[in-house]
Amino acid sequence: MSRRRYELTDFEWSIIEPLLPNKPRGVPRVDDRRVLNGIYWRLRTGSPWADIPERYGPATTCYNRFVRWRKQGVWDRIFAAISAAYDGDLQMIDSSSIRVHQHGANAKKGPDASPGSSADARCVGRSRGGLTTKIHALVDANGLPVGLKLTPGQAHDGRAAEDMLGVIGKGQILLADRAYDSDALRQRLADQGGWACIRPLAHRKSKPAFSTFLYRYRNLVERFFNKLKHFRAIATRFEKHAENYLALVKLAAIKIWMRFYESVT
Fold it and tell me: What is the pTM of this model?
């Protein structure tokens, strides 16, 4: 049977297969590639987990393995391994607000609810667009994701970026818009040996150095968000828990990286 739309190519499978957990001896399980194809089908279409076609195995198997491997850190390790060859000379940071569907907004609240139940922990906030989650992304000179995180929709971009800048080192440049303009952020990058090419706020009395030529490349992070939102389960958040939603974002990012590798091979 020919490969169906959304499924992993042989090249993509050759990358991801060695990074998956080994199968326990004596414990048969549904084929990993089949299950991953089901997870990617759901990720791309945005359909409910229960609607995953039978050709990918039981829908409960796809969901349970997705959650189990998320808890084991499998998706984090795969993303880290695949993005390790990033081009760090020029990096860009930005965020994008995602509408939270009513199914994703009705998780239990209160002290007795499950982990991730409070509004902040679920990364659900209220902004001009209603209930939203904000995806923050750091991308490299090819527009490929290096760092990803979630915050509630009303979170300030500059403050949210503080724990995403550790990968920027000596001689590297960060491009960002006015939302990231602060003396503290600029000083941190300088201490790491990097340089902040950030559009200064209009009210600044003393304007820091800024290159309009380099700033033109900031559109690469916007292009990344456009690619990310081709995955309908990302473009609208249906997941109740932030951990599951961020895992889906990373799975989409892994797919984007693998497409890049395939295109240059």
Answer: 0.90
